[in-house]
Amino acid sequence: MSGNNEYGSFPGTRPRRLRTTPVMRRMVAETRLHPADLILPAFVREGIDEPVAIEAMPGVFQHTRDSLRKAASEAAAAGVSGIMLFGVPEESNKDGLGTAGTDPDGILQVALRDVRAEVGDELLVMSDLCLDEFTDHGHCGVLDSEGRVDNDATLERYAEMAQVQADAGAHVVAPSGMMDGQVGVVRDALDQTGHEDVSILAYTVKYSSAFYGPFREAVGSALRGDRKTYQQDPANPREAMRELALDLAEGADMVMVKPAGPYLDVLAKVADAVDVPVAAYQISGEYSMIEAAAAKGWIDRDAAVLESLLGIKRAGARMILTYWATEVARRLR
Ligand code: PBG
């Protein structure tokens, strides 16, 4: 009911009543972050004795095998659900085919075995399934004689990668190269090698983004050119639905949208459209922007970190890959 005074009418409805105290706000919150929502992406580098700080990602390191094991057990203790591993081979172990990516003794496979031995089933061990960290040209696939990324030749490499990653103990493999048909060949390769229970988290909707910049330093990539002939054009949300239909038909168990923050509209559409779990990847550039602005004193770091993650969850993500996973999981507990 509204009242009147000399200035006119009072509001009859007062939404502010539900914002009066922290407990009231907590009770009526429509979206909650939980440690189990979070997945930690982590880098492990071959041939180093000490972790190496990634300049463009303050607080993130290229791990040694030992420091990676420690990071994994800390993530598990904090209640994080998974760790997504990226291998950084020695420069001399890179070649045109990304051979180190399918070598059972390559850094990623070694790290998968280490982490699996460390955490067992307490943390989901996930692996990025892509060639870019292992190729000397930095592309996600192998090149044809004209220097173009050869889709079908790359699929054969991915099939082999899927098998060695699963053999090394991955619970989940995550094909991220945006090759046509990648989910199907990975599923077949897993099934034919006795890995029916290894699941596929597909990088389904992956845009060609400027925000991957800091990641290139993180994995020491010397990318020549760009990824515009295989990653999606940032202008296209409809095409995302096409990629989604294909990945589901090919057997994706979970699908991912990436980057997250600049693509919340796409994330919301994908989440509405499917009944499989949807992940979003808050990528390196999203991380670095907040850290950089906070270092300048321009934003409240801790509040901005939580708000950025809440926005991704609100848009429909079931799981979020974030470099802040362990820190945030601890804060939420
Ligand atoms: C491909 C891959 C990339 C990222 C995750 N998987 C790089 C790319 O596609 O250019 C980026 C992650 C990030 O920026 O945090 N192996």
TrEMBL record:
Mg(2+) binds at E243. Its EC number is 4.2.1.24. It is an enzyme of class 4 (lyase). 5-aminolevulinate 2 binds at S284, Y323. The keyword Lyase applies. PROSITE patterns: D_ALA_DEHYDRATASE. InterPro entries: ALAD, ALAD_AS, Aldolase_TIM. GO terms for biological process: protoporphyrinogen IX biosynthetic process. Pathway: Porphyrin-containing compound metabolism; protoporphyrin-IX biosynthesis; coproporphyrinogen-III from 5-aminolevulinate: step 1/4. The active site is at K206 (schiff-base intermediate with substrate), K258 (schiff-base intermediate with substrate). Pfam families: ALAD. 5-aminolevulinate 1 binds at R216, R227. Keywords: Heme biosynthesis, Lyase, Magnesium, Metal-binding, Porphyrin biosynthesis. It catalyses: 2 5-aminolevulinate = porphobilinogen + 2 H2O + H(+). It comes from the Bacteria. One of its GO terms (molecular function) is zinc ion binding. SMART domains: ALAD. One of its GO terms (cellular component) is cytosol. Catalyzes an early step in the biosynthesis of tetrapyrroles. Binds two molecules of 5-aminolevulinate per subunit, each at a distinct site, and catalyzes their condensation to form porphobilinogen. Homooctamer. Belongs to the ALAD family. NCBIfam families: PRK09283.1 (NF006762). This is Delta-aminolevulinic acid dehydratase. The lineage of its organism: Bacteria, Bacillati, Actinomycetota, Actinomycetes, Kitasatosporales.
